[in-house]
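DATA CLASS: polypeptide
GOAL: derive C-alpha cells

***
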Amino acid sequence: MSAGKFGTAINCIDGRTQLPVIEWLMENFHLDFVDMITHPGPDKLLSQGRPSELEAMKAKVLISIKAHGSNVVAVTGHYDCAGNPVAKDEHLSQIKRATEFIHSFTLPIKVVGLWINENWKIEIVE
C-alpha cells in the first residue's frame, strides 16, 4: 500500500478535463493523489461497452483500489466530448449507468458521477 490517500478517476482523454477532476476530487475527498484511468468518452464505454471492454476497465479500477487503497471512484463525462459527441442529457444518463456498473463490483468504495460543464466546472450527477 502506498503512502497517502488515493482516489480514482475514470476520465476522458481530453486534457481539458484532467485538472478540474483531479482538483475537485482532492478537495472534496481530501486526497493526496488521484489515479487516472482515461478513455475517449468513458461514460459511453462504461454504460454501453462490450463485456471485454468492461472487464478491462474493471481490472484497471481494481489495480487502483488494491495497490493504492483508493476508496473513491469518479466516473466522468464532459461538454464538447469528441469521443462521445452526444447531448448533455445522454451523457448524464450514461454517467448514471456507468456509476451503477462500478457499484456492481460490491466493494467498500464511494462512487460518484461527475459532469464537467462548458466552463470546465464540476457538477455532481445524482
